[in-house]
Specification:
The structure is a single chain. The protein is built from 16 helices and 16 strands. The strands form three sheets. Strands 1-5-6-11-10-9-7-8 form an eight-stranded mixed beta sheet, with helices on both faces. By secondary structure, it is α+β, with helices and mostly antiparallel strands. It starts with 18 loop residues before the first helix and ends with a helix. About 35% of the residues lie in helices and about 20% in strands. Bound molecules: histidyl-adenosine monophosphate. Histidyl-adenosine monophosphate (HAM) binds next to strand 6, strand 10, strand 11 and helix 12.
């Protein structure tokens, strides 16, 4: 088969964001950037791929994301021994890389509290379905440092995620929170679960038995009915929390209450990545079907040290807390509610040449508008007046500026408001300023 006859399409599990959709993406990013800045967060950009070891050490070797979904990058270049230079993987999430960079540049040495955010593509080799892609995008935020060890920050982070969804106009989402307690509480919780479930696991499915061996926490949010019943019979509640773990959780809830953030405590919420301690949360939008988590996050004290950072001589614990929203899912949820982030006027002015001979005049005027930082365009097709006016409509221009023989002869320009249909003719020299004032 010759190459030209092949119909090339994008890879399965990826999506092209075409210009009509890109407007909504831009609007989502703009709202997030603005909101995050009001909370004191600054942007960080890390590479799209990292050493595989980073994800294995942070997310955990037994997690689904590392075990089954890591998309490894095979370099064609060989080192002297003929082996791959290093084992790389496309990033499945942003937290591990942010911590890697935080440690690498010793950011904590100068900053007591680092508030960082990122926006970009992530990659997981999952079976694609609605709301689940192999290349998807996250908007995430992480707070790290000695100053990040405070329950107020857990609440602030959760509030920021909730406020962003609200600022976008999303309604009806649910916030679920839970606490895994301190590192010791979490380890105790795992062994308590193993003991409690030891005699009960025999009656469950093979998948549940495998999860019991691999990562016992996964049984808590298992979709298997029998498993759910067994878990419910344990009456977990806050049994797994020590006094200090419980105290911390109570402080997070009190801070959320003080901000009027509505939440539901869910003892089944444990999250699928290994690095969490204390607070975990998830934001659910039920209209999305099976992939209904629009975002999630939690505290991960300990990861900075685990990845080689921190100063062991310093008595203060380095804290870390963050979340990520799935951008595709946020947009799907808004679409489900009939909310359209697309409704932005794309262009200030569309310039119309009254005859093909006036094309150069129109081009000069477009240039003049752009120099004044107004967005402007023209037809470039020497088409008739009607077609140009149709084009002005199609690109959603606020104004059409008409340069006909008459206007050019008297050094004037006619300006049509495309929304109201009103039209006026003014001296060409005043046109740019007039449009700027509108
Ligand atoms: P996560 O729960 O794995 O957490 O992902 C966060 C969000 O990314 C999910 O709630 C979902 O909206 C979106 N997402 C995940 N996988 C896919 C996929 N295959 N297709 C479409 N959307 C997806 C994390 O990634 C953590 N790093 C969050 C965090 C930050 N925790 C602390 N700091």
């Amino acid at each position: 088969m010759s190459i030209v006859s092949l119909k090339l399409t994008n890879p399965r599990g990826t999506a092209d964001i075409l210009p009509d959709q890109a407007v909504a993406w831009e609007s989502l990013e703009k709202t997030a950037r603005h909101l995050f800045k009001t909370f004191g967060y600054r942007e960080i950009r890390t590479p799209l791929f990292e050493e595989c070891g980073l994800f294995k050490r942070s997310l955990g070797e037994t997690t689904e994301v590392v075990n089954k979904q890591l998309l490894e990058v095979r370099s064609q270049r060989k080192d002297a021994e003929g082996g791959d230079e290093s084992f790389l993987a496309l990033r499945p999430e942003g937290t591990a890389a942010v911590v890697r960079a935080y440690n690498q540049y010793d950011i904590g040495r100068n900053e007591y509290l680092s508030k960082l955010f990122y926006i970009g593509p992530m990659f997981r080799g999952e079976r694609p379905q609605k709301g689940r892609l192999r290349q998807f995008h996250q908007i995430g935020a992480e707070a790290l440092g000695r100053g990040a060890n405070n329950p107020l920050l857990d609440a602030e982070m959760i509030a920021m995620a909730v406020r962003l969804l609200k600022a976008l106009g999303l309604e009806g989402f649910k916030l679920k929170i839970n606490s895994l307690g301190t590192v010791e509480d979490k380890a105790g919780f795992a062994s308590w679960l193993r003991t409690e479930l030891k005699d009960k696991i025999g009656a469950l499915s093979d998948e549940c038995k495998a999860q019991y061996e691999r990562n016992v926490f996964r049984l808590l949010d298992s979709k298997d009915r029998d498993c759910q019943q067994v878990i419910a019979s344990l009456g977990i509640g806050t049994k797994h929390l020590s006094a200090s773990g419980l105290h911390y959780f109570e402080a997070v809830k009190a801070a959320l209450d003080s901000m009027g953030i509505v939440y539901e405590v869910s003892e089944k919420l444990v999250r699928g990545l290994d690095y969490y301690t204390h607070t975990v949360f998830e934001i659910i939008y039920e209209g999305l079907g099976s992939q209904d988590a629009v975002g999630a996050g939690g505290r991960y004290n300990g990861l900075i040290e685990q990845l080689g950072g921190g100063d062991r001589r310093m008595p203060e614990v380095i804290g870390a807390m963050g979340f990520a929203l799935g951008m595709e899912r946020v947009l799907l949820a808004l679409e489900h509610q009939g909310k359209n982030l697309n409704a932005v006027s794309a262009l200030d002015v569309f310039v119309i040449a009254g005859s093909p001979e006036l094309e150069a005049r129109a081009f000069a005027f477009v240039n003049e508008l752009r120099l004044a930082l107004l967005s402007a365009d023209m037809d470039f097709g020497k088409r008739n007046f009607k077609k140009q006016m149709e084009q002005a409509n199609k690109v959603n221009a606020r104004f059409a500026c008409i340069l006909g023989e008459e206007e050019v002869g008297s050094q004037k320009v006619s300006i049509k408001n495309m929304k109201t249909g009103e039209q006026l003719t003014i001296p060409a020299a005043e046109a740019v300023q007039w449009i700027e004032r509108q």
